Amino acid sequence: MKKSVLIIALAIFGVTGMKAQEFVQFGIKGGANFSTFTGDGIQGFEDPDSRTSFNVGVLAEIPLIEDRFSIQPEVLYSAQGFDISDDQQDNIFDVDDNVEYQLDYISVPVLAKIYLVDGLSVEAGPSFNFKVNEEIDNAPLQDGGDTDVSDVSAVQDFEIAGAAGLEYKFNNGFFIQGRYTYGFSDVVEDYDVHNSVFQAGIGFFF
């Protein structure tokens, strides 16, 4: 799986080497994730509470029509999952309060980016997500408390999602961004359960 992530990342960012460097901008970004599951495929997990976590990664903007249209590939670490409510704890888990189900991905969005006015753009496209971590954390604000459940889980290792959002880029390369990502693939095969993630972040193009 890690080799697949590396191959995709190299392919996406390697394409930019075919274009003159003056046209391609590389950047870094990070921000907050507000994630949960949506759907009604597993009893006890209808609309669970959201988990607040983070995303961080690198990106490139490849202009196709100057100042109007670009392709923006990214490679992100996206920490997702949900908070386990008291009812879910009673019904499913034998744990204390303040518990998180942590489901983290290496995400590779490839977005079409259209500028509406100078600096302001809308973006949308597919995201190819690879599961890299799955655990129950009964002390998310402290060290320890993590229980790896990936070996006994039925969660799929790969997900295809769709992402859409808004971005404003300042003249100095700094940008702010808001985005929503929805998993088209079932989190668990043949069950109507999907990842749902709101993201807010900042970044900088060099």
From TrEMBL:
<feature type="domain" description="Outer membrane protein beta-barrel">
    <location>
        <begin position="20"/>
        <end position="187"/>
    </location>
</feature>
<dbReference type="InterPro" id="IPR025665">
    <property type="entry name" value="Beta-barrel_OMP_2"/>
</dbReference>
<protein>
    <submittedName>
        <fullName>Porin family protein</fullName>
    </submittedName>
</protein>
<dbReference type="InterPro" id="IPR011250">
    <property type="entry name" value="OMP/PagP_B-barrel"/>
</dbReference>
<dbReference type="Pfam" id="PF13568">
    <property type="entry name" value="OMP_b-brl_2"/>
</dbReference>
